[in-house]
Structure of Fis family transcriptional regulator:
Amino acid sequence: MGKAQLLPHTAAYVREQSLCWHLALAAFKTGNGNGDLLAKIVKALYLAWYLQEAGFGAVQREVYLDAERILDVAASCASRGVWVIESADCPPIIQILDLHERQLLCAPVFAVAEAESCVLRFGKSEKRAPW
């Protein structure tokens, strides 16, 4: 394994990723979400979970369950053309996104790649959620 795999992602990369997630959430808060933005948020939450399982930071499982419920509501409303997450519902999602930002700043690239592989395997499974 090379040096680049043993080090965390660069701070610039982490900032870029974090900005993407928070902009996606901001779009939902203004009623301008969409399926692609929802997928970005969901992927970040799943990556956070798998990195948490690998020992990189933690939030309580209940926070993930709350975030999942909120995103499920957003997805179900999308069938009516409504892509919104109320500001009052954002704290659990923000808590996990903030955790994931911290994870990317400390987890080695190989651990993040393994978490991404776990997300892909989960996507092919019949499970409802990884937690």
